[in-house]
Amino acid sequence: MAVTGRAVFLAFVGVAVAFVAAPAGAWVPWAVLGLLLAALLTDLALAANSRAVRLEHGGDTSVRLGEHAEVWLSVANPGRRTLRATVRDAWRPSAGAAPRAHDVVVPAGGRRLVRTTLTPSRRGDQHSAHVTVRSHGPLRLAARQSSHTVPWTVRVLPPFRSRRHLPGKLAKLQELEGQHRAMIRGQGSEFDSLREYVPGDDVRSIDWRATARRETVVVRTWRPERDRRILLVLDTSRTSAGRVDDLPRLEHSMDAALLLTALAAKAGDRVDFLAYDRRVRARVRSEGRGSTLPAIVSAMAPLEPELVEVDAAGMVSAILAGQRRSRQLVVLLTDLNAAALEAGLLPRLAALTARHLVLVAAVADPHVDRLAAERGDAQAVYRAAAAQRTIVERRRVTAELRRRGVEVVEAAAGELAPALADAYIALKAQGRL
Q1: Full set of structural domains in the chain with CATH
Q2: Angle formed at CA 282 by CA 277 and CA 286, multiple of 5 degrees
Q3: What pLDDT digit, counting tens, does each position of 236-267 carry?
Q4: β-strands 190-196, 153-157: how paired?
Q5: pTM value?
Q6: Distance of CA 156 to the CA centre of its chain
Q7: Among 234, 264, 252, 268, CA closest to 169
Q8: Is 41 exposed, middle or buried (0-12, 13-18, 19+ CB in 10 A)?
Q9: Cα(206)–Cα(216) distance, integer angstroms
């Protein structure tokens, strides 16, 4: 049983009446109390049964972070009395549910739909907590209240902020494929056609047999290979929790991975995905041609940084265990933390580079560069020295990675995604995929 504000107001009025009429006799307060209790019990008896209400969720099951999702709730009244109720569809605060409550009137045997708009502020799965139904009587003095479990989940996907770069990167791919200019030569590329030699062509592309049959020098034209394999490896260990531009490194890495996935799918390549720290957090395998972007986006949604050191040996084993026999591009999205890489990845790098082309992509923190430039006081000088040491160590580990045949892309938070896409396009232009 629940008492409404209207009943409380009537109780105050009754107390005032009893106080004024008290000299008339001692029975007046008891009469006022009796009338109020009778009204409450009568109103409660006439209220529809809140436990018998049938509830069912529906609506959107996924939404991108920063966008809106709509979830509806079906309220069915199987009883013989009209249901006058306040229905609260409860979600966790980060779901951004509005409105918080709905007033409904459902006739006997009828059904009504109420709609709740979700504006999530966090990635991941948002679950409906419970639905509370407060059934009022005709006078709205008392109500029957009960809570119901009505499961519904909305998956909040990464926002894919770098999508705006996709058209420009696709234009570069089209140039490579000869839609905007002639085919190019690349080591290991697919043969396309023959044409006459022009000054500036690579002499290694001359087809001597075709030249011998003609009066002019003939060269082969090539197109970038398609149906190559790319494995995106997302480091979800403690280094991914560091914040750059008010967002964890993991968010920037996800954004770069999504742009590369969309670009590679348009280029006809197959993209697999692996999230790892000390165990596999998510894995998506591409089983055929076509974009795996929706599957990768969905797999990324519930990922959060884990405050543990990455198990580099386990990560390398997971990469090698899931790979096919063919050579592929392994893109590791992590941090260029010298201590973590030297103790973990570098000793095990040879096993990867012997079989695959490896590219390491990392977010650069502009705050470190700003600290390195400070000279205001003694504390600023100490901070600048620490920042400069961090910069030197990152440059040293970058040089070591490149010496071992690893491609390295390091860029600021907003530039990592397009920089990684440019590196992928350059590798295709060079015929290294």
Answers
A1: 54-157 (2.60.40.10), 181-223 (no CATH), 226-429 (3.40.50.410)
A2: 130
A3: 999 999 999 889 999 999 999 999 999 998 88
A4: unpaired
A5: 0.79
A6: 6
A7: 264
A8: middle
A9: 11
